[in-house]
Amino acid sequence: MPRQALKPSYDQEEEMEQGPVSAKNDLLTIREVAQRLRVDTTTVRRWISLGLLEAIILPHRGKRQAYRVRRSTLDHLLKAGPSLLDAVRSEQN
């Protein structure tokens, strides 16, 4: 007896219409960004506060502001090569 495919739920239908979530829209923590750039988390926070790195500000209750950086933003920064990273680093001095 052949198996019948289950009808997707309403939420699954919407997801199929919109397509899978793109990896470019993934959000990274400050720690993840710092690890990929091989800098300290304080440096990443400084770049964000200076406007050198675009980030999403999250609501917080703790001592530090919470941020998320889009993977596409970080990928763009890495693709631009060392010259852009050097420019960003020189801006902080």
In spatial order, strands of the major sheet run 1-3-2
Please give the number of β-strands. 3
Structural class: mainly alpha
Low-confidence stretches: 3-21
Helix fraction, binned, reads 40-55%
| Through-space gap between termini | 72 Å
Mean pLDDT: 75
Radius of gyration: 19 Å
Structure description:
With 93 residues, the protein is mainly alpha-helical. It has a single domain, classed as Multidrug-efflux Transporter Regulator, Chain: A, Domain 2. Helices cover 48% and strands 11% of the residues. A three-stranded antiparallel β-sheet has the order 1-3-2. A hairpin with a 7-residue loop joins strand 2 and strand 3. The longest helix has 10 residues. It is globular.
Provide a quick synopsis of the model.
Helices cover 48% and strands 11% of the residues.
Give structural attributes.
93 residues; mainly alpha; Multidrug-efflux Transporter Regulator, Chain: A, Domain 2; three-stranded antiparallel sheet; 11% strand; disordered N terminus
